[in-house]
Every structure is written in structure tokens, then in C-alpha cells.
């Protein structure tokens, strides 16, 4: 039977890049780390690491074991925390990632409240416009927006939100938009991470379907909604942005919604997490907490 402590030591060595750095991270001596790795290799009958004076290199067997060890250790942590949670509340570390904009508007405040409710839980949050590799980055849950792509991960729907075309009053004075045709020929600011940023199926007046296509090359392309909002506020053109992001700018008159009789497809907020055999209580707890908070439930 594989020893989880030795597996954890092996993962620490791989991630630290050396026995010395792994020993420091684990609070152990270099000799203890070396013994654990030798015993693990002896148990398996394979060489896991090729050692040189400058670096360590994984063998093919070592690479396979490293990837499987990440999942095994995560399952073990989840099982331990699930058993302990019924008596002690959530503990350990919760690693969450999402986009910078949704982090500042929704996820950040929710994590703060969740952390206050579970003082034994350590929270680590990092934001990025690029989807994270949940396994290699050891992410517990990623909050993703839009249309969920097929993946090997599990997902839970948190909420849906409206997206709308917006522009500054200054831009609209120069480029009045009164029809879909005029909107299609506008100076568009597009999101580069959308699967199909130029073509949309809309719902028009009386719920009639309508097709919409941007016919001119985009004036500006960016990989974040925050950047697109900045360009829109500066009068660069039309951006398709979520209502939760632009609500304040609309209320202040800094941005204007275009053609409100036409509705773009609603988008989803999803909690995405690894397809583990044991989903930890802290992950399930945070997903339920975030869903209730977004819905306005106590």
C-alpha cells in the first residue's frame, strides 16, 4: 500500500525542484526527505527522479506518479476535512480563482464573509482572465462566467446574468444607433476569449428571434471585461458587457444601453471543480454559500 506521507514528500520535491527546498517547505531535514524518496522508489521498483548536480528531472514513471499523486492527496485531504467538518467546522485551505472583475464585485466579498463564518479555514484567492488548470494549480473551485465549455471537470450553476451592448454618451453623439444594422456597423470592442464574439442569436420585440452579426473589424479587442469597459467609458465604441459590471456606470449616465428592445443570450456563473471521488465539505459549502448570496438569500 502506498504511503501518503511519502507521496506528499515526492510531490513537494517535484514542486520545489530540489531536496533542500522541499525539506525547507516541509519543515524536515534533507536526509529525511531523501530517505522517503528512496523508500518510495524501492516500494514501486522504479526510478522516479533523475538527480544531477544542478537539477532534478522526472522519469516517465515519475511524471505519471506525480499527476496521480496530486489527485490522491486531494482526495485524502477532502475526505479528512469532510469527516472533521461535522465536529470542527471547515478547516484547511480553500483555493479559489475567478476573473478580476467578478472577484472584486462578487467573489471577493463572498469569500470574506465565508472566511469570517469559518475562522479555522485559510482562504487563498487568485484572479486571472485565463482559465486555470485546476489539477496542476491545485485549485479547489474556479468561478467561471459565460457559456461553459466541455471539460473533464464538474460544474454547478450559481446564477445567470444579462449582457448588453453599451457605449458612452460622447460616442453615441457621434454615432447614433437606432437599428440592428447600425449596431452591426459600429466601432465594436470585443472580448477575445469569447468563442464567437461576432455572431449572436438575439431575442427581439415580442420575443421574436433575430440574428446579429458584427460586420466591421473590431476597433479594439481585449481579454478582460474590465479593459473593455474602460475603452467604452473613454468613448472608443460599443462593448458587450455584463449588467453586474456596468450597472453603476449606467445609473450615473457614464454609459448608455443600446437597443434595449433586443436581448442577448443570458450567460451563466458556474462553480467548476475537479471531478474527485470525494468533494470536500468546504468546496460544497462555499458553492452553496455563493449561490445563496448571489440570489440574495440570507
Automatic annotation (TrEMBL):
Domain HTH lysR-type, first and last residues per copy: 2-59
Family annotation (Gene3D superfamilies): 3.40.190.290, Winged helix-like DNA-binding domain superfamily/Winged helix DNA-binding domain
GO molecular function: DNA-binding transcription factor activity; sequence-specific DNA binding
One GO-annotated biological process of the protein: DNA-templated transcription
Cleavable signal peptide: 1-23
DNA-binding among keywords: yes
CDD domains registered for this protein in UniProt: PBP2_CrgA_like (cd08422)
UniProt keyword terms in alphabetical order: DNA-binding, Signal, Transcription, Transcription regulation
Similarity annotation: Belongs to the LysR transcriptional regulatory family.
Protein name (record): LysR family transcriptional regulator
Native source species: Cronobacter muytjensii
Amino acid at each position: 500500500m502506498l504511503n501518503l506521507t511519502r507521496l506528499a514528500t515526492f510531490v513537494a520535491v517535484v514542486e520545489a525542484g530540489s531536496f533542500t527546498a522541499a525539506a525547507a517547505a516541509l519543515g524536515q531535514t534533507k536526509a529525511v526527505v531523501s530517505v522517503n524518496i528512496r523508500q518510495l522508489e524501492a516500494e514501486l521498483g522504479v526510478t522516479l527522479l533523475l538527480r544531477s548536480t544542478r537539477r532534478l528531472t522526472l522519469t516517465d514513471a515519475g511524471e505519471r506518479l506525480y499527476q496521480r499523486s496530486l489527485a490522491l492527496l486531494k482526495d485524502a485531504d477532502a475526505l479528512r476535512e469532510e469527516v472533521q467538518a461535522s465536529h470542527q467546522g471547515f478547516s484547511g485551505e480553500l483555493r479559489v480563482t475567478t476573473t478580476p472583475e467578478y472577484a472584486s464585485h462578487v467573489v471577493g466579498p463572498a469569500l470574506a464573509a465565508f472566511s469570517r463564518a469559518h475562522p479555522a479555514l485559510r482562504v487563498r484567492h487568485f484572479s486571472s482572465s485565463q482559465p486555470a488548470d485546476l489539477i496542476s494549480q491545485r485549485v479547489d473551485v474556479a468561478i467561471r462566467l459565460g457559456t461553459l465549455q466541455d471539460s473533464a471537470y464538474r460544474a454547478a450553476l450559481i446564477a445567470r446574468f444579462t449582457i448588453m451592448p453599451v457605449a458612452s454618451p460622447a460616442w453615441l453623439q457621434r454615432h447614433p444607433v437606432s437599428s440592428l444594422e447600425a449596431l452591426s456597423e459600429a466601432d465594436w470592442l470585443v472580448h477575445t476569449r469569447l468563442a464567437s464574439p461576432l455572431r449572436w442569436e438575439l431575442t427581439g420585440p415580442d420575443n421574436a428571434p433575430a440574428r446579429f452579426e458584427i460586420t466591421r473589424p473590431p476597433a479594439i479587442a481585449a481579454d478582460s471585461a474590465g479593459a473593455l469597459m474602460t475603452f467604452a467609458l473613454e468613448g472608443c465604441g460599443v462593448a458587450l458587457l455584463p449588467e453586474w459590471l456596468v450597472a453603476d456606470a449606467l445609473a450615473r449616465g457614464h454609459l448608455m444601453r443600446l437597443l434595449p428592445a433586443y436581448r442577448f443570450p443570458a450567460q451563466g456563473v458556474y462553480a467548476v471543480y475537479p471531478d474527485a471521488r470525494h468533494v470536500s465539505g468546504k468546496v460544497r459549502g462555499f458553492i452553496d454559500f455563493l449561490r445563496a448570496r448571489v440570489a440574495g438569500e440570507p
